[in-house]
Description:
Blueprint (H helix, E strand, L loop, with lengths): L1 E6 L5 E5 L8 H4 L3 E6 L15 H4 L6 H24 L3 H7 L3 H20 L14 H25 L7
Amino acid sequence: xxxxxxxxxxxxxxxxxxxxxxxxxxxxxxxxxxxxxxxxxxxxxxxxxxxxxxxxxxxxxxxxxxxxxxxxxxxxxxxxxxxxxxxxxxxxxxxxxxxxxxxxxxxxxxxxxxxxxxxxxxxxxxxxxxxxxxxxxxxxxxxxxxxxxxxxxxxxxxxxxxxxxx
Length: 166
């Protein structure tokens, strides 16, 4: 730790080790002295990786909510289209008959936990990004999947028929 004393009129300055005062500098310092103490860090010491709490990760502006909702929307959009193509049931009839509610609950639980664990360990989605699969592409795909689910429901409400059977 070092202590630096300087006069505000720049008439003189004294640099001394912490805890030591030079007798000749005391009268010159008076009331206009500025004392600054700074502690230097040891070189090559890694800063500790901070891991957020679960409440920080799930906060409105946190990293988890949009990413988890986007992942669930991507799975839901593909599943809704596959069921429409396979059985002919529209999105609203799929929601109405309740046959996939247990699978939906399992998918929500698994994807939520799988998305939260790396965040709580201090990793970020941006740190694991590659050339093709990156964090921004995942967010945009999730956003489009959310809009796609809304568009499927709106199309079925307006036309009265599933999207694929039109």
